[in-house]
Amino acid sequence: MTTLSIFDAHTPDVARTVTDDAAEIGRLLAGKGIRFERWPTQDLPVDAAPEQILEAYSSEIARLKAESGFQTADVVSLNPDNPQKAAFRQKFLDEHTHSEDEVRFFVRGKGIFYLHLDAQVFAVQCEKNDLISVPEGTMHWFDMGPEPEFTCIRLFTNPEGWVADFTGEDISGRLPRFEALEGAGL
């Protein structure tokens, strides 16, 4: 279930707002300059190749490229049997920014984007059919959980792909992790 939990960055023990209403999530994120969309489901085999996935969503990808100047799109996938899963999880857990928008569309599975916006942290649990676009310069981190299972389409303006600038702040360690927020108790 797609959820949004909003925390006070100074007292992050309990979320002040929690919702699973997709329209409300879109409205609250749009108010902070975050793009959130739900794309129509495409029928794909469980083991679909990246080329099949990119073809199935080619019209949506073309629209985003035209609107926002993205140069490339690829597919990233991770499963619980990956021996590097702990290292991959750790790579994205510290607060960082990017010099370009970070765009992810969830083809399957889920993960939580934590967006540090002023004095609040918006924790967006994205699932299948969710698109989120984190604007360049936004402080954020991503938690895929201890048993990651997701496939995402990523779009880039930088041909080098994912490049992070870590802030050095410890805020990501003070917010509830994926295990505590999954489903947000709704």
Q: Look at the helices and sheets and give the structural class.
A: alpha+beta
Instruction: Give the % helix.
Output: 10-25%
| SS strand fraction | 25-35%
Low-confidence segments: none
Description of the structure:
The protein has 186 residues and is of the alpha+beta class. Helices cover 21% and strands 35% of the residues. The protein is built from 5 helices and 11 strands; from the N terminus they run ββαβααβαβββββββα. It has helices at residues 22-30, 50-56, 58-68, 85-92, 178-181, and strands at 3-8, 17-19, 35-38, 72-78, 96-97, 102-117, 120-127, 130-134, 139-143, 150-156, 165-166. Strands 1, 2, 3, 4, 6, 7, 8, 9 and 10 form a 9-stranded antiparallel β-sheet that branches. Strands 5-11 form a two-stranded antiparallel ribbon. A hairpin with an 8-residue loop joins strand 1 and strand 2 (17-19). It is globular and about 45 Å long. The N and C termini lie close together (9 Å). The model has no long low-confidence stretch (mean pLDDT 93).
